Known about the structure:
Layout: E1 7-11, H1 16-31, E2 35-40, E3 53-56, H2 66-90, E4 94-97, H3 104-112, E5 117-121, H4 128-133, E6 139-142, E7 158-160, E8 183-187, H5 195-207, H6 210-215, E9 216-221, H7 227-234, E10 240-244, H8 250-256, E11 259-262, H9 266-275, E12 279-281, H10 291-301, E13 305-307, H11 315-326, H12 329-339, H13 347-359
Parallel strand pairs: 1-2, 1-4, 2-3, 4-5, 5-6, 6-7, 8-9, 8-11, 9-10, 11-12, 12-13
Helix pairs in contact: 1-13, 2-3, 5-7, 5-11
Amino acid sequence: MNKLKKRIVLAAGGTGGHMFPAQSLAHQLSKEGHSVFIFCDDRGHHFKDPAFSMIKTPAGQLHGSMGKKLRGSFKLIYGTGTALYHLRSIKPHGVIGFGGYASFPTMLAATVLRIPTIIHQADAYFGRVNRFLAPLVTKIATSFPHVDNIPPSCKKKMSFTGLPIRPEIQPAPYIPSMGDDPFYLLVTGGSQGARIFGEIIPQAVRLLEPALQKRLYITQQCRAESLETTQSLYRQTQATVELTPFIDQMGEQYKKAHFVISRSGASSVVETSLVGRPALFIPYPYAMDNHQFFNAKQAVSVEGGWLMQEKELTSHALAAFLLELMTSHWKLVQAAANIKTIVIPDASKRLANLVKLLTD
């Protein structure tokens, strides 16, 4: 047996924003010869990868009504006990958590067993679960060079590794749209598409001059139940539009795009930055601790993107914004170059190297 081979546990779950980075790291570690186990809750199993053993660890949230808090507490205790059982059986050399309450039982169990641990902080605002775990873990990896709300005593544990993302997302040269050239607009809004995008964006396009409308080729993620309504709004424009609940071949869509309108979850900001596409980020206003706002600020701080709060998103404001950008291609070229500076292209390798340092 290869003496360098390690057993590594990754704790994630809930959404693609947690599972995709975990799976990206899992493939990197597996490529390097390590055995990887993924601990996740019921929701995480929707992203099941047959290449890895996935172990269910119940998790619950501790907010809401008293009844919800009690159920959450029970799930947390049960999940921690489940994680303790499996960790004792696997005897991992290291445990890496990807944030969110679904990873909490496993990370808590790992610290109890004194296994070397890393938490990966995806967002640019230090989350509540990671803030609780930060004093207990060995290392803290971050997606962005600057993270708000991190405990000062834990800053010495920090390492800027970047966020591991899907391998099909790759850097691509930015070729501007000039004159009467087609202008490709990519609109994404989270896992199901933001409902407000399906209303405001077509109304904004309709306010543009017909010549600008004809230049627009729009690929937009849209909720299945909103497809018909959004399509009827776009029929009042002269833009060429493709609406879909799920965007296939996301890497190709990023490469084709001249501009992106998106929510600002960590994965969305990092993917857009890695490809090198200027973007308007509209944070989801009900995200925990308003963390999407802090993610968007990373791109804005280097003049690689723009930020608009949802309460400011009106059809007239967006139309004026699109008019300015579609007639000022040099601004987009500069923003495309700037936004690349906030991302690390080989994040999976960087994080895998941190795991190696942790477990050696």
